[in-house]
Amino acid sequence: xxxxxxxxxxxxxxxxxxxxxxxxxxxxxxxxxxxxxxxxxxxxxxxxxxxxxxxxxxxxxxxxxxxxxxxxxxxxxxxxxxxxxxxxxxxxxxxxxxxxxxxxxxxxxxxxxxxxxxxxxxxxxxxxxxxxxxxxxxxxxxxxxxxxxxxxxxxxxxxxxxxxxxxxxxxxxxxxxxxxxxxxxxxxxxxxxxxxxxxxxxxxxxxxxxxxxxxxxxxxxxxxxxxxxxxxxxxxxxxxxxxxxx
Length: 246
Known about the structure:
The protein is α/β, with parallel strands linked by helices. The protein has 9 helices and 8 strands.
């Protein structure tokens, strides 16, 4: 091991890097993405108080259909569904979604994607996925935002589960307004015929999971699933989301 000797003082290379990191943190401290409190060097993205405020769904432990799976009953067939967090107005989940979508904080998507992947890789019924498919956003929105937040989450999941990410040639062809203030029927009208699936690939019989940032009424995912099933009627579809607005 490389060391520097100064009498009784010995410092190895790893210690030097640790000291460097601590000094950097002292001069440029990381802030909690929710409350802006200074983070300890061991904290990741959120302070302990805001981390405790996260409302985990624990859907991975359910033996009966969960709330998202029931949401799609009678609408489109899905194999299974998972959301990592419950969305509560004013809670930590709302803040991290806002950071992810509107303040160019790409790290949040990737880190929470890895959390999702770490959870699902322990569940046997999620290990037969062939592809992760991020929900597409319009190119104009992706350009202004700098990324597709669902793609960041999918890449984080992929890093944990070793499942490839594939966009399936899916494109969002209408630049629609935000869904936030719309009811279920207005949301469905807002996304009808919204997506285009390019030809040239054969995914018949594959099991894919659409990856989204937040599920509310499920209108966007319903439209996407219908688009894919029209071309590949034998494909199996599941749904993964960072959050679910119960």
